[in-house]
Design brief:
Aminopeptidase, alpha+beta, single chain, 4 helices, 6 strands, disordered C terminus, six-stranded mixed β-sheet
């Protein structure tokens, strides 16, 4: 079977989406979890133009926020926090125990931290002169988290 590697940096979105669906299908099969769903909130102006978005997915008891953006003209009015709060509430309603997000030091790590996210990792030099930061918000503890918490409380008492 012959295969040829080639650069296709302008791969059509439909073809990329088809490959991503195959990847997701493998993940569903391997984990036995087929509860993946997009999780998207859009803020629109009077002309129905998207001026803000919180976009990600939920799957297998977790959620990941892939994109949180507010148009420059609408920043500073609490729209980012509104979008984030809606995303968190929907993730919790779907049974997600944790939400993950990756941001850069020049983007919105403070917004996430004020919303109860905690830093899990920071990668310096990504991009050069800056850091990439991974944060997590725990919505509800799972059984192993509860057992760990109980044993810590018992020892402290």
């Amino acid at each position: 079977m012959m295969a040829r590697l080639q650069a296709e940096h302008d791969l059509p979105a439909a073809e990329l989406h088809a490959v991503e669906e195959q990847f997701d299908s493998d993940n569903r099969r391997l984990t036995g979890r087929a509860d993946d769903r997009n999780l998207v909130y859009v803020l629109r102006d009077e002309a129905r133009r998207a001026i803000g978005i919180a976009s990600g997915f939920s799957w297998a008891g977790i959620a990941e926020l892939k994109l949180l953006w507010v148009d420059k003209a609408y920043r500073g009015f609490g729209h980012g926090r509104k979008l984030l709060d809606a995303f968190v509430a929907e993730a919790a309603a779907r049974g997600s125990r944790r939400i993950w997000v990756s941001t850069h030091d020049f983007q919105a790590p403070g917004l996430y931290e004020r919303a109860g996210f905690e830093r899990m990792a920071e990668f310096a030099g990504w991009p050069e002169g800056h850091s990439s930061i991974v944060l997590r918000k725990t919505i509800a503890a799972d059984v192993s988290d509860q057992a760990t918490l109980s044993s810590k409380c018992f020892r402290a008492g």
